[in-house]
Amino acid sequence: VYINNPSSDTGEGVIKMLNTSTGSVKIIVGYAGTAGEIDGIGTNARLDGLRGFALSSDDSFALVPHAGATFKGIRYINMSTFEVRTYRWTAGTTAPDSDMTYPGEISISPDGSFALMDEGTSSQLVRLNLSTGIFTRICSNCIGGSMSNIFGNGSAVLYMYRSTLRMLNLSTRVSTTLAGALDTAGTVDGV
């Protein structure tokens, strides 16, 4: 089990690993009490403004959205070596650069070739090609606000929004409500 401690909450900016057999917890990336934005291996890396955590289906790498003081992007962690490197929004890519202010939830494709992420303040959905490092805006204002629990497989994205479970078809950019009612919390089962 991995635990993301963003520095904005705890001052740590670390990723911890919980051994479920022994109950022991150890820092695998970052250095407690020293937030920063430096690539490196293990405790030599510095993390800040972490948002979420996604582990690849084969457990070989993790992606962590990063909204630190000096840049926005995705932190890539090799789970064998704990090496940290960064995918940054850069001018000249198809990424939203100046308007990407709050990297949000993230999901890695089952084959590990790309990631999907929401931009929490402007309802954008962004795709990151993990082999080229290029960000592409899938759509703007297509998800109706900040979402949580994004799950993508390449053709559709499931997400929670205002007490509903919704699906966005990536080809048509149309969202469909699968369950729940807007702004109506509850625990009623149904069809």
Summed up, the helix count is 1
* Strand order within the widest beta sheet: 4-8-7-6-5
Structural class: mainly beta
Largest sheet, strands/sense/barrel? 5 strands, antiparallel
Order of helix and strand elements from N to C terminus: EHEEEEEEEEEEEEEEE
Taken as a percent bin, the fraction of beta residues is 35-45%
* Rg (C-alpha, Å): 17 Å
Helix content: under 10%
Uncertain runs are: 94-98
Kindly report how far apart the N and C termini lie.
33 Å
Number of strands: 16
Shape: globular
Average of per-residue pLDDT values: 77
If you had to describe this structure to a student in words, what would you say it looks like?
- The chain is mostly beta strands and 191 residues long.
- The chain is built from one helix and 16 strands.
- The strands form four sheets. A five-stranded antiparallel β-sheet has the order 4-8-7-6-5, with no helix packed on it. A four-stranded antiparallel β-sheet has the order 9-10-11-12, with no helix packed on it.
- A hairpin with a 5-residue loop joins β11 and β12.
- The longest helix is centred in the N-terminal third of the chain and has 4 residues.
- It is globular.
- About 3% of the residues have low confidence.
